[in-house]
Amino acid sequence: MHKPLALVVDDEADILDLIRITLGRMGVAAVTALTVAEAKRQLERHRPDLCLTDLSLPDGSGLDLLHYLNAHYPELPVAMITAHGNMESAVAAMKAGAFDFVAKPVDLAALRNLVESALRLRGRTGALDEQGATDMPLLGDSTVMEQIRVLIAKLARTQAPVFITGESGTGKELAARLIHAQGPRRDGPFVPVNCGAIPHDLVESELFGHKKGSFTGALADKEGLFQAAAGGTLFLDELADLPLPAQVKLLRAIQEKSVRPIGAAREVPVDVRLISASHRDLSQEVERGRFRRDLFYRIDVIELRMPALRERPEDIQPLAVHILQQLAQTAGGIDPAACPTLSEAAIAALVRYPFPGNVRELENILERALALCEGACIEVADLYLPAVERARTPDPGTASTERRETTVDRARWNQTVAARALGMTPLALRQRLARLGIEQ
Ligand SMILES: Nc1ncnc2c1ncn2[C@@H]1O[C@H](COP(=O)(O)OP(=O)(O)OP(=O)(O)O)[C@@H](O)[C@H]1O
């Protein structure tokens, strides 16, 4: 393989020299440019493997160059050189498709990490991306799932922080794993952390580590999860549950790309890609003062929304068939050829069911059905779909209320008919309407 080549664009000759020498020590050759125009000329002559560009250049901005490169050389990873502390422009650059950023004065360890990640992308093809996907397929033929798979492949090529939203069980962790598995960090660790599951007084020590004796109970030095994820991806699930003091430290870790273990004298650089997720609306948490706005801004650089299963009912059948096959193999030890199938009525019942627990609930329903069904076919009765739930969605404040109202409207306020349509007794319906504050 030829010696990797970087294009470095900066209007300060000193910085160009410094970066060129550093890259040279890493076995990376460099061509340089002082302006956008010169950078374009260099691109006509050379085929670089990565580009590092300053944000403000004499004849345009680094963002202009980024747009040009994205349009003409979409495979080329572009990293921004930003002024120290100017996270706004770093965030803007990543939103515009930059692979990563490095702050001035350029920290050599950070530059090394960035270049190594970019070079790992070199020569990557679609086939490799698909290989990452087949290990843990994100299933679904709906247009929205197709779009999500394309977006995941794109996100895998950058280092930008991704914030994944969606109800519980919609596949947020699976999406995070795929971004990791299809990207240049695939050989590094993927460290999932459920922020809601860590006791508040231990969060900082768990995330950032501690030194022996830094607090009662700190009997030995302990590495934090940030360090455990070095070279890989840290997945912070249920981020909204992170207590405010830990949010401050997380903000600093993102900005400085380094962490300070509790009781340590100095910060240690960490090379971690951050992906976070929450089933709660983080912007609402910001409004309520429970989540720091500045942190939200840095976490939510690119948002990926995983849709609820009931928003894409066409995915239910293929998912159910795939999950059944997998369950039969792993849990039941059943030969896939002998795996029970779903009756047409059972499929129709699943497609009608609103799945408040999304794909995870579908997995649970099928696992139970597989254990209980006696023949070669899973019938509606084997599914044990909660009767009342059939008309419900998880948020009683919105969708389920609307659904009840339209059903009740349609029944012209005849509660007996409406109750029958909803699969509940008239008394239960009256109680539910009263609880939802709907006039009877
Ligand atoms: N599109 C999909 N294709 C295949 N499996 C899926 C899909 N979506 C979710 N799953 C499966 O459903 C289960 C739940 O997914 P996952 O844990 O990623 O959800 P989550 O949104 O992170 O849930 P929570 O918010 O409760 O942590 C997992 O076993 C996952 O593999």
Automatic annotation (TrEMBL):
The modification 4-aspartylphosphate is found at D54. It comes from Allochromatium palmeri. PANTHER family: RESPONSE REGULATOR PROTEIN PILR (PTHR32071:SF100), TRANSCRIPTIONAL REGULATORY PROTEIN (PTHR32071). Residues 138-371 form the Sigma-54 factor interaction domain. Residues 5-119 form the Response regulatory domain. It comes from the Bacteria. SUPFAM superfamilies: CheY-like, Homeodomain-like, P-loop containing nucleoside triphosphate hydrolases. One of its GO terms (biological process) is regulation of DNA-templated transcription. One of its GO terms (molecular function) is ATP binding. Keywords: ATP-binding, DNA-binding, Nucleotide-binding, Phosphoprotein, Transcription, Transcription regulation. This is Response regulator. Gene3D superfamilies: 1.10.8.60, 3.40.50.2300, P-loop containing nucleotide triphosphate hydrolases (3.40.50.300).
